[in-house]
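Let's practice the habit of predicting before peeking. Look at the sequence and jot down your guess about where helices and strands might fall. Then scroll down.
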Amino acid sequence: MSHVDGTGLVLPSFPSIHNWKPSSSMVDVLCALREAMVSASKLPQPPIDSTY
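Done guessing? Here is the structure:
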């Protein structure tokens, strides 16, 4: 997934975090993150014994 590093940390460039406003909530960020994860789950997965 873009906007997530190799350790699973969500980067500040993630749109919901990058465009944070006082009216934003954690629910907004979590929903946007879930949407990004769902779209990434449809990508082909690497072979079982591969390293990255």
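How did you do? The chain has one domain: 1-41.
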